């Protein structure tokens, strides 16, 4: 009998014993150390290192409440979904997700590749670092995981079975509340507003009926459009990078939903990085160098996705009606509409809602932060209300640059 035959929430000392038992390469007689490294909203993440040879591994365990708040009661079974999805994504987009070595259903944890030789993209962008392959890697990941899990390519019966297998009601409810509902009405009194922007937000967000109607339309699309297997939380904190590698992590929110949800989240979080640089970097050689790269990256994420999506459709479409002339371009246009709208939703919820981003909260000058928040919120409103106008990367870049000039 092992004490790991029954679930309990592990501490670092438990993880060392656990790894010694589950992973033969990491033996008790070796000098193992364990550090909790996770700072996410949901799970517990540990790094185990064998100090004798430097080998390392990651253990990720699910608790039965979200770390962000005990109000969110969750099934620890979500880690099973994450492990299965990482395995599927590894087949669809090789090299762009971490390797999974073991999933343990009893302890509700996953043992996976250590990415300590990478950095979290959000952290790197806040240090104004650039990654030349980022847009190419992300657009490939998006096309391969979205197009290839859709009705365009998959057998309809197989796809419906996959929809059933990856249904994720608890975490979808969190998204439905935190992204699509609370930022527009604070109906659960959980929003956190910068005092200096409170009155502005109440007037321009809570009281904007047109904005709220468009957000409601997008919410119902999120709840009913089982288009593809989306990552569900694809922001710059869910991506590890180095100059020659990109790894997408943490697909625990994954479910079958609108493709634009993943693309829009990426775009929004890259805009947050652009906002931080635009408002905090003093004028000089480094500012246009970094913001120009971000503008090109945002543009290329969208435009390379479109290019690869159409090429992938042509090569892989199996549904007979998907081969009708013009359907691919019509379908892509609907995805781009969703992308713009969801980018706006993500930008609003990260400023108005409970889950902030350091791109904005780290702006120490309060006058600049007030301006940065209003810039993001105004940009977001336009993306949501006029989402049909944003069909390519340059459309979004023009919007953010025009709005910045008005600040």
Automatic annotation (TrEMBL):
One family name in Pfam for this protein: APH
GO molecular function, one term: S-methyl-5-thioribose kinase activity
Alphabetic keyword roster: ATP-binding, Kinase, Nucleotide-binding, Transferase
Keyword Nucleotide-binding listed: yes
Domain Aminoglycoside phosphotransferase: 33-278
GO biological process terms, semicolon-separated: methionine biosynthetic process
Highest taxon of source: Bacteria
Gene3D superfamilies per UniProt: 3.90.1200.10, Phosphorylase Kinase, domain 1 (3.30.200.20)
Enzyme Commission number: 2.7.1.100
Keyword Transferase among UniProt keywords: yes
Chain ranges passing through the membrane: none
Subunit structure: Homodimer.
Family listed: Belongs to the methylthioribose kinase family.
Name of protein: S-methyl-5-thioribose kinase
């Amino acid at each position: 009998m092992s004490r790991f035959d029954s679930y309990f929430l592990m501490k670092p000392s438990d993880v060392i014993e656990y790894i010694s038992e589950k992973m033969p390469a990491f033996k008790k007689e070796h000098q193992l150390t364990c550090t909790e490294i996770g700072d996410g909203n949901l799970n517990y993440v540990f790094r185990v290192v064998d100090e004798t040879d430097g080998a390392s591994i990651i253990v990720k365990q699910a608790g039965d409440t979200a770390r962000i708040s005990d109000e969110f009661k969750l099934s620890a079974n979500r880690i099973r979904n994450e492990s299965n999805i990482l395995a599927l994504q590894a087949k669809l987009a090789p090299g762009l997700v971490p390797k999974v070595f073991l999933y343990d259903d009893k302890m509700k944890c996953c043992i996976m590749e250590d990415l300590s030789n990478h950095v979290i993209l959000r952290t790197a962008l806040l240090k104004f670092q650039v990654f030349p392959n980022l847009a190419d890697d992300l657009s490939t990941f998006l096309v391969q995981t979205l197009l290839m899990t859709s009705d365009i390519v998959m057998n309809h019966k197989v796809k419906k079975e996959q929809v059933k297998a990856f249904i994720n009601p608890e975490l979808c409810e969190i998204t439905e509340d935190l992204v699509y509902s609370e930022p527009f009405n604070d109906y659960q009194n959980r929003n956190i507003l910068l005092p200096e922007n409170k009155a502005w937000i109440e007037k321009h967000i809570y009281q904007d009926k047109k904005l709220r109607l468009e957000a409601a339309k997008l919410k119902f699309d999120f709840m009913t459009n089982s288009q593809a297997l989306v990552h569900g939380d694809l922001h710059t904190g869910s991506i590890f990078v180095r100059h020659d590698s990109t790894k997408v992590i943490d697909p625990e929110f994954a479910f079958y939903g609108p493709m634009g949800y993943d693309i829009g989240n990426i775009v929004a979080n890259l805009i947050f990085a652009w906002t931080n640089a635009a408002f905090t970097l003093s004028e000089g050689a480094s500012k246009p160098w970094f913001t120009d790269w971000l503008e090109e990256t945002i543009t290329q994420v969208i435009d390379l996705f479109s290019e690869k999506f159409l090429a992938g459709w042509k090569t892989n479409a199996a549904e007979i009606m998907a081969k009708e002339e013009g359907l691919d371009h019509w379908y892509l246009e609907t995805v781009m509409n969703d992308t713009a709208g969801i980018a706006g939703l993500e930008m609003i919820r990260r400023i108005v809602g409970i889950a902030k981003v350091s791109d904005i909260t780290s702006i120490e000058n309060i006058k600049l932060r007030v301006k940065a928040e209003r810039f993001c919120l105004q940009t977001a409103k336009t993306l949501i209300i006029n989402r049909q106008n944003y069909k390519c990367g340059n459309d979004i870049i023009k919007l953010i640059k025009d709005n910045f000039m008005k600040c």
